[in-house]
Design a protein that fits this description.
The protein is mainly α and about 240 residues long. About 85% of the residues lie in helices and about 0% in strands.
Length: about 240
């Protein structure tokens, strides 16, 4: 009798214990508990917002510094770079909203907004460059102009690293496109340094011509970014 009780006790769990274990598993599955871990969509949203915010801060500081130099130099090459950097910083707004909403569809629309901002900045920069070719203006403080170009390069390169790494980690085509955009902007900023050098050598017309060249590069960035966003498919 005692042997049977021992065998029963050893081999068969109590029905209430079974029901409790089943109920415990069901509760976890039904309510998506993660034993204290943050849900992946929330983590993705936070990481995306952090990357966008940090890039915005860096580009904002860069653009403000370049604007201060533009006021003294009147360089159209710097103006083109400055307009583009302000537009680039502004793209953080739709991207940040998309990550806050945790919506793949909103993120894709944010990518389209990025492309639109790049294109508009190209149009404005191109208009200013053509105006200066028609009506040349002297460029001043060439040393400050070269420094502004160097600041533009550093700011865009850092922003590109932040956006590209976060974009790959979060599988976000919008962030990846913005990262590629900022990386290309870094090289565009080097053209501002080239403008300062060429103008110092006695060819002031080079400044608006370099502004036009920057415009063409921005248009190429627009096309590449459009292809990246267009090929994106919303996540399930």
């Amino acid at each position: 009798m005692s042997a049977h009780a021992h065998e029963a006790g050893g081999q068969h769990p109590h029905p209430q214990d079974h029901d409790h274990a089943h109920g415990h598993r069901h509760a976890h599955g039904g309510h998506g508990h993660s034993h204290g871990l943050v849900h992946e969509s929330i983590k993705r949203s936070r990481e995306g917002l952090a990357a966008v915010g940090l890039a915005l801060l860096i580009l904002g500081i860069t653009a403000v510094a370049q604007f201060a130099v533009f006021v003294t130099t009147d360089s159209v090459a710097l103006l083109a770079d400055l307009i583009h950097n302000f537009g680039d910083a502004a793209t953080a707004i739709p991207l940040g909203i998309a990550f806050a909403l945790r919506s793949a569809r909103a993120e894709r629309w944010a990518g389209l907004a990025v492309v639109a901002a790049i294109f508009i900045s190209a149009c404005v920069a191109g208009y200013e460059a053509i105006s200066r070719v028609i009506d040349p203006q002297p460029v001043h403080h060439l040393g400050a102009l070269a420094l502004a170009g160097a600041l533009g390069f550093a700011g865009n390169w850092l922003a590109a690293l932040i956006r590209s790494r976060a974009g790959r980690r979060l599988t976000s085509p919008a962030l990846i496109a913005d990262g590629a955009h900022a990386r290309a902007d870094a090289y565009v900023s080097l053209a501002v340094i080239a403008s300062a050098i060429v103008v110092a050598l006695g060819a002031p017309v080079a400044d608006p011509l370099i502004g036009l060249a920057i415009t063409l590069v921005i248009l190429r960035i627009t096309w590449d970014s459009w292809r990246t966003v267009r090929d994106d498919r919303p996540h399930a």
